[in-house]
Amino acid sequence: MSRRVRATRVAAADAEFVRRPDGTLLVRSRRELGPYLRRITDRLEYWAAHAPGRTFLARRNAAGEWDRLTYAETLWRTRDVAQGLIARKLSPERPVAILSGNSFDHALLALGCVYAGVLYAPLAPAYSLATTDFTTLQVIWDSLEPGLVLAEGAAFGPAVEAVVRGRAEVVSSVAAIERTAGAAVDDAHLKVGPDTIAKVLFTSGSTGHPKGVINTQRMWCSNLAMIGRVLQFMGDAPPVLCDWLPWNHTFGGHHNFGLTLMNGGTMYMDEGKPVPKHFGTTVRNLREISTTAYFNVPKGYEMLVPELRSDAALRETFFRDLNIVFYAAAGLNQKVWDELQDLAVATTGEEILMVTGLGATETGPSVMFTGPEGAASGRVGLPVPGVTVKLAPVAEKLEVRVKGDSVTPGFWRNDALTAASFDEEGYYRMGDGVTFVDPEQPQLGFQFDGRINEDFKMSSGTWVSVGPLRARFLTHCAGVVQDAVIAGHDRDYVSALLFTDAPRETLQALLDSFAALSTGASTRIARAMVLTEPPSLAAREVTDKGTINQKAVLANRRALVEELYAEPASERAMIAGESL
User: What is the CATH number of domain 455-575?
Assistant: First the structure.
């Protein structure tokens, strides 16, 4: 029986398709993008004038109360920070590095940089805090050569000592930077335009070092306009977000922070995250703050559903004002998805629209969205207005390539990588594969078909589509296996490394039943082994969003992969069909 979905203004997908003789497909929205801002800080000035007392950012203090930055205060402090940066002669050639996580000081320094046209780079705190080997931080430092560093708290001391070594000014607060804004700030702001680099985002590397993605004002402003053309409810009333996603990543720092600022909203900064040690903080905040849109990664929803199930007060607050539930960064288990909707109906009598899509740091981030018809796990929708998606046949898949104002001009001080990342027509190669949900009904959009660089051939020459295989296996093992890494390049069969604490008997039964459902060697996991060590953030096995980096795990645990394929079989290896 169909259930009522809460009315929410999300634009219906509507695309045109042009197929070329070589099998390439061009897809674009029929909707025009229209004009958009020259610079993101124009919206800060707008809201400071039109809603000066409205809270822009809020964060709990030590007493558990919410400290707040209004739009008016944010603007005048942003201008004072900009004055301090100008006085220090900072510039795109002498940029700013932010080592710290989300905070008021982080926001003010970032906005001050953007206002004055000073390039900045927000770096994952893990590069400083989750390791004693600062090699990655050193590589980024050598690439940036910053003139100013924000490092809040003593915990950053070892990293600063090891990498900075007195070569740049280090501050622990923007109070050390702020000066009363004068005419120089106005002059600098007028020079900021669409081609000005706002920031460089260093994406998580796999087996190599992170790459610096150039993000211009044009990218940021155009992509926010693209998102606004789809998530139209954002412009109906100021959004309220409660968000933990890190600002050194495009999802948190571009998408969520930008949407809040663009639409005059309020962001409650959630200091929790989807790990057992910190998720209680998130639950406390969501029990108090009723959001109008909720953004998270799949792991966050996996942890949230049991809390919603057991806590009536949390359910009431969470669903009360909610327009959409949005996930990104990895596939969401359909079982979690379904239970979340069941809880929404039990609490409000309505389902909440689930929205997802496809994007990347290099694309601003958003490229595709699902529409008001909702989505199912794995669907990514159709292109947003303003971009053209080129689907090119690569390794038996259709690779997503993108062109538009929201696409990066390239990688920071890496011309070779820039050249290799764009095809002969100037489309950025995302490396993601997609397939039609239904080739007979193209307006239903696309289904994610895995990362092309994760796919491999077995020794038989048969391709293994890693993303879909992993997603099917995790759905089959829902609630038992937290994550799986697929191996089998140039091997006779596919195997998996499992992150789980479940008993061997339970895992063996799941491996057997999954094998029974498989249609061939490329869809069958023949052996599996439980990893006793959790994924390492320092070794880039897991990103700061909580998603597994398949290539890094395989590289770092090469000996375990070899053990999986050893003959006779290792005692730690489970073999599909062994208990049948």
Answer: 3.30.300.30
Query: Which among 304, 372, 376, 379 has a CA at the least distance from the CA of 338?
Result: 376
> CB of 358 within 8 A of CB of 268?
no
pLDDT tens for 383-439 read 999 999 999 998 788 999 999 999 999 999 999 999 999 999 999 999 999 999 999
Query: Could you confirm whether domain 1-38+217-454 is CATH 3.40.50.12780?
Result: yes
Q: Are 275 and 300 in contact (CB under 8 A)?
A: no
Phi and psi dihedrals of 309, rounded to 5?
Answer: -60, -35
Q: For residue 305, give Cα distances in angstroms to 41, 197, 290.
A: 37, 40, 16
> Residue 212: what are its φ and ψ, rounded to 5°?
-90, 110
Supply the pTM of this predicted model: 0.89
Where exactly are the structural domains of the chain? 1-38+217-454, 455-575
pLDDT digits (tens, 9 = 90+) for 243-301: 999 999 999 999 999 999 999 999 999 999 998 899 999 999 999 999 999 999 888 99
Residue with tokens 């992993």: 470
List, in sequence order, every beta strand (DSSP E) within 207-363.
211-216, 240-243, 266-269, 293-296, 324-327, 353-355, 357-359
